[in-house]
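Please discuss these two lines.
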Amino acid sequence: MDTTKSLWLPEKASTFANNIDWAFYLYYWISVAFFVVIVFLIALFVIRYKRRRPDQLASAQITHNTVMETVWTAIPLLIVMFLFVIGMKGYWNMRVAPANAMQVDVIGRKWSWSFEYPQEGISNDTLVVPIHQPVRLRMTSMDVIHSFSIPAFRTKADVIPGRYNTLWFEATETGTFQVFCTQYCGTNHSYMWTAVKVMNPDDYQAWVAVASDPSRGKTPAQFGAILYTKKGCAACHSVDGTPGIGPTWKGIWGSSTALEGGRSVTVDSVYVVKSMMDPAADVVKGFQPIMPPFQGVLSDKEVNGLAAYIQSLK
């Protein structure tokens, strides 16, 4: 992993990084230069033109200086136009993915990310990609506005419900890099982070072979334990009895649970599946109806695995 960092920026790990860092420091030093000049002139004028006697009259008003006015208008205009061209070229480069880009679908929800690989039939909670391969992310949200950011790749885009947004990148370093949600999205916003793992092509193909069937060699309950973390269930539901945003899963199977509105229900496979597909239908008393529906998100095998895992938590 390239650990080259600065005071302001993290390590560089994508093809965008060098150009964006160059532009950032160009803007930065131009700003510093203007700041120093302006503060110096303010201090100089305060000292030089200080009123020294109570009866001292102001100097005759100078109406204008054509040369000076032209210079202080033209120079900033040229600088701003130059910076605009740099910004637009960078924007176009970051928005238009190469034709050979690998596509991954990204789904944001409170409060987790999931990544779908259409060609491989893989669903994962961590973004795994090969090095030196353009990757195009097609992103949407199941609930509120999120924002998908990979600081080491210098890339970020909003993830909006009801529409698709895209970004792309090409990783230049292997390793694990942090992914953040940079749009406040509710109670557990600060926990909505994951990672992107960049692998060598051979390692990536080996990962695909295993990830294409994560339930292979596992019991339904063991598979459900994996999904508990991968699908973001851990953000709201504990498995040790600790109260959370949602009810704990420990020991609830077969018990009678009070619902809002005065009803009660027995926690069994029917109730658990209904709670995943339509969580607003039966809200547990004392909790808010904030769980997003997982209809169309979980396969039958995944639903059965999660139900088996809940049942195993005695």
